[in-house]
Amino acid sequence: MLMLLRGWxxxxxxxxxxxxxxxxxxxxxxxxxxxxxxxxxAGPAAVDEATKEAVLKEVRRRVLxxxxxxx
Length: 71
Prior knowledge:
It is built from four helices and no strands. It is mainly α. Helix 2 packs across helix 3 and helix 3 packs across helix 4 (49-64). It is globular. The mean pLDDT is 83.
């Protein structure tokens, strides 16, 4: 998803995922699951709502930027 949205390489996308994981204290695979679920028609990620919101807020802030609803 990050490669698609930002035009990043695999390494850049992994770095973005890792940074979000570190700043939210959420496991990397859960961060990835939240992002995939948010950006596709996949079922909801298997994380609680508070974790999902924290991850998405951090992705908007650190990765996607102002055009994606950053507060």
